[in-house]
Every structure is written in structure tokens, then in C-alpha cells.
Design brief:
The protein is globular, with a radius of gyration of 16 Å. About 25% of the residues are buried. β6 and β7 form a beta hairpin. It starts with 10 loop residues before the first strand and ends with a strand. The protein contains five helices and seven strands, in the order βαααβββαβαββ. The mean pLDDT is about 90. The chain is an alpha+beta fold. This is GNAT family N-acetyltransferase. It comes from Bacteroides vicugnae.
Length: about 180
């Protein structure tokens, strides 16, 4: 039987569809999520529509990949998981994950991150994935370390949050088969 990527018993990861506009709009414009992104303005529906229409859903073409996290039992959209800043020459990319506030602390982020790592390493043959996480974000640090990421550095004053600079951990996961 052929191995099925991007799916486990609880969730699956899929490409972004036009129907995802409302949940993406809500999540991208949630001020509590802005601390972890590099964007300083709200997204318009127009910009999100352009993103969805322009994406080829091919990490090698787009240099990024956004997938929707979907609960299998009821097709509920739980959040998004991304590979960004993809560099084909070095076969690496940065991981970002956002789970809607109503579905946090239920293990969905762990499921999604494990599936993404499996896909990135076993199917795409990437060499490594990495993430930047604020040092005081214990939940996020625990998420990444539970999925095989290890701390390999501290970036001083890396993120500006509410007028104060905060340190970020650089977490890295190497492909175990390379």
C-alpha cells in the first residue's frame, strides 16, 4: 500500500481553496497573532484573494507552501501551517503555524507539525526545517521540541512586541535520513 502524506487519523493538510477566505481573513487580522508575524498591517480580502489565486501550491515554484489544517471528522478548518523562506539551493525552509484560538491546546498543532515534517523530509527531501520562537512562548517551544526540533541559537532583540524587543530561539530540525 502506498504511503499517504499529509494525513493522520484526526486531521489532514490540504492546499488553500477560495472557500478558505473567511477563516484566513479572520486569522490574519487577529491582533494576537501579529506578534509572531512580520506584517504590520491588516490583510484585505483583495490581497488574500490574490494570494490564493496566484499560488501554484508548489514550494519549488512559490518558494513557500501554505496548507490548511482540517479536522477529518467534520471538515472544520483549524488553522494553517506554512513553509516560508524556502531556499532550494540549501534545501531548507522556515516553518510557521497558526491554529485558530478556538482549537488551541488540543494537539492539532502537534499533529500538523509532524505531518508537515514527514512530508518535507520524506516526500520533498528537504534537508532541514527551522523556526523562530519567542523565548517566553513556552507552549510553542514545547510544540517544536516535541516534534524533533532542537534549539541551536538565541537571536537577541529579534522581535519587537508592544514596543519592547524580545529574544527568539532558533529551532532546527534536520532530516534524519540525510
Amino acid at each position: 500500500m502506498r504511503h499517504s502524506f499529509l494525513m493522520n487519523e484526526r486531521i489532514y493538510l490540504r492546499a488553500v481553496e477560495p472557500e478558505d477566505m473567511d477563516i484566513m481573513y479572520e486569522m490574519e487580522n487577529d491582533p494576537s497573532m501579529w506578534d509572531i508575524s512580520n506584517f504590520t498591517v491588516p490583510y484585505s480580502r483583495y490581497v488574500l484573494r490574490q494570494y490564493i489565486e496566484g499560488s501554484q501550491c508548489d514550494v519549488f515554484a512559490d518558494k513557500q507552501l501554505r496548507l490548511m489544517i482540517v479536522r477529518k471528522s467534520d471538515q472544520c478548518i483549524l488553522g494553517t501551517i506554512d513553509i516560508t523562506d524556502f531556499v532550494p539551493l540549501h534545501s531548507r525552509g522556515e516553518v510557521g503555524i497558526a491554529v485558530h484560538k478556538d482549537y488551541r491546546q488540543q494537539g492539532y498543532a502537534t499533529d500538523a507539525l509532524k505531518l508537515l515534517c514527514e512530508y518535507a523530509f520524506d516526500f520533498l527531501s528537504l534537508s532541514q526545517l527551522y523556526a523562530h520562537v519567542m523565548t517566553d512562548n513556552e507552549v510553542c517551544v514545547k510544540l517544536f521540541t516535541s516534534c524533533g526540533f532542537v534549539q541551536c541559537g538565541i537571536l537577541k532583540n529579534w522581535l519587537q512586541v508592544e514596543g519592547c524587543y524580545k529574544d527568539a530561539l532558533l529551532l532546527q530540525c534536520l532530516n534524519p535520513k540525510k
